[in-house]
Amino acid sequence: MKYIALFIIALLFWLLLTFNLSISNIVVGIVAAVATCILFGKHFAVTSFSKLLQPQRYFWFVVYLIIFIWECLKANFEVAYRVLHPAMPIKPGIVKIKIDLKTDIAKTTLANSITMTPGTITVDIIDEYIYVHWIYISTDNPEEYSQKVSGRFEKYIKKIFE
Amino acid sequence: MELTISILLGFMIIGAIFAIHAKDLLSSVIAAGIVGYSLVICFLLLKAPDLAIVQIVVETITLIIMVAVVIDSTREELKVKIDTQQIINISLALIFMLVLVFFFARAIESLNPLGQHTLRMASAYVGDPAAKTGSANLVTGILFDFRGYDTLGEATILFTAAIGVLTILRIKGKK
Amino acid sequence: MSLIVKKVAQLITVFIFLYGIYIIVHGHLTPGGGFAGGAILAGAYILQILAFGRDPLHLKKKETGASISESISILTVLILAVVGLFIGTKVFFNNYLPSGKIGELVSAGTIPLYNILIGIEVAAALLTIFLALIIYKEEIE
Amino acid sequence: MMVYILSFILFLVGLYGIITRRNLIKIVISLSIMEFSIFILLVLIGYIDGGIAPIITDQVINPTYVDPLPQAMVLTAIVIGLATTAMLMAIAIRLYRKYGTFDIREIKNLKG
């Protein structure tokens, strides 16, 4: 099943890259997509084909993008405030957060989203825990900081990928 | 154009001098990367996109290979002490450089200034005869049609290099 | 490497590989060609090997495949060149296929074929060199 | 003229490195620096003011192309440079495993 998903993704990418709908181009694209499937199909990250066909996942993806950009803007201003403030009120440290995402690709997306937001960097993922370097650790309460760091993204990622 | 390229070349010279004199082999390898990546920008400015694509990929792979070798072995540079051998080497290098500078000064007189090249040799390849190969990219047309022998020899060299690396690394050393 | 690097590498290699094929196939129309595209294909493989670490048995199989495809592609280049001796005029490396209209995907005679074969050859050679450097890491006693 | 002289200075830096250094890795790096200087010199010679990249398009009327011949030569040379660098690196790591050093004088003394 995952080979068909890879084939469709590869063909779409090829058509976007060339932007040409002549017969010869499409034939070459199909050959290229088949070659990619044979060589890399075993290790492709997207495992389930049926999930690609459910439209609500794309809807939640758009919603997630908007929320992500908004959070990114907020975090930008916050970090800029901390850097420009003469006293530099930073309190860096690493926090360990439990996540309940199951699939690997969802974990990776969450980690990359956290890294993209200024002020937080994902250091590693080990089983169910992610380790995040944070520029200002405001609380010591695990519930609170996990809500602050990962909670805002986690529920949407769960809807997109699981 | 000449000023931009001169500044880039100046950076390349600084990078090269640092690569030769660095105390740490890893930073020396990375400084050699400065020279290679500046070359990519020079190629783009000089209207050679084919070369830029090839150089940026080849430089990356070279860096990976060099870093792999340096991490596998040692990062420490040897202690340079000035003895008679070193003095002889440096004076030898200076003599070589002087001789080369002399010949280069003679050779540079016959070069056109930058940007006023006449297509003396390539006029057979550019223009109307370019339609002979039917290739829109003239460089590819020259490489695979007019100068096919060069390409065949080049492919042979790559093949030989791959076989050679396999052979060198495979043999058992006697200890 | 950690999970993040592995997953991102899995996702990205496919697109790098397709971009390399695009560079090779459009070598006679846009900048690029067999050398650049072949190096990009090798880069996709190297990225995957760097992300997934060394598993000697698996790598050894890959290296054998790379050597074989390298030899076959350079042999095919020679056969294509020799065919020019029999068809048309008596010139090695003769462009005997019709050249077509400039700017179309199927044009320029044998040049796209040479591009594809040289691309495979360069990719396989670079991959062989890289794999040899990491497989035979220790002195084999 | 300035750019030609600067690229020649880059060549001289590489030559100096080859003759005076004793570390094998440094020698390989110096060799590749010499290669780079030759590439840039060849491409500089082929440049024409107001020329466009040597790809036939319909958009420009009566175009001047930069010289494609040096570019084809350099394209071949870059890949050969990669092959030689990889080969030299393999030899260097092989010598390191046998003698435990990159010093060319030590390697010479241990012969026999």
Residue share in helices of chain D? over 70%
Oligomerization category of the chains in this entry = heterotetramer
The greatest interface here is: B-D, 86 and 80 residues
Helix and strand content put the structural class of chain D at mainly alpha
What is the mean pLDDT of chain B?
Answer: 83
Q: Total number of helical segments of chain B?
A: 7
Low-confidence regions of chain D: none
| Largest sheet properties of chain B | none
- Low-pLDDT segments, ≥5 res of chain B: none
Distance between the termini of chain B: 57 Å
Main beta-sheet strand count, sense and barrel state of chain D: none
The total tally of domains of chain D equals 1
How much strand of chain D?
Answer: under 5%
Distance between the termini of chain D: 51 Å
Q: How many beta-strand elements of chain D?
A: 0
The geometry of chain B reads as: extended
Question: What is the H/E order of chain B?
Answer: HHHHHHH
Polypeptide structure, described:
The complex is a heterotetramer of chains A (162), B (175), C (141) and D (112). Chain A has 162 residues and is mainly alpha-helical. Chain A folds into two domains: 2-50; 54-161, no CATH class. In chain A, 60% of the residues lie in helices and 12% in strands. Chain A contains five helices and three strands; from the N terminus they run αααβαββα. Chain A has helices spanning 2-18, 23-40, 55-84, 104-116, 142-161; strands at 93-98, 120-126, 129-134. A three-stranded antiparallel sheet of chain A has the order 1-3-2, with helices on one face. Chain C contains four helices and no strands. Chain C has helices spanning 3-25, 34-52, 56-86, 111-135. The longest helix of chain C has 31 residues, at 56-86. With 112 residues, chain D is mostly helical. Chain D has a single domain (2-109), classed as Helix Hairpins. Helices cover 71% and strands 0% of the residues of chain D. In chain D, helix 1 packs antiparallel against helix 2 and helix 2 (24-45) packs antiparallel against helix 3 (68-99). Chain D starts with a helix and ends with a helix. The mean pLDDT of chain D is 84. Chains in contact: A-C, B-C, B-D, C-D. Chains B and D meet through helix 1, helix 2, helix 3, helix 4 and helix 6 of B and helix 1, helix 2 and helix 3 of D.
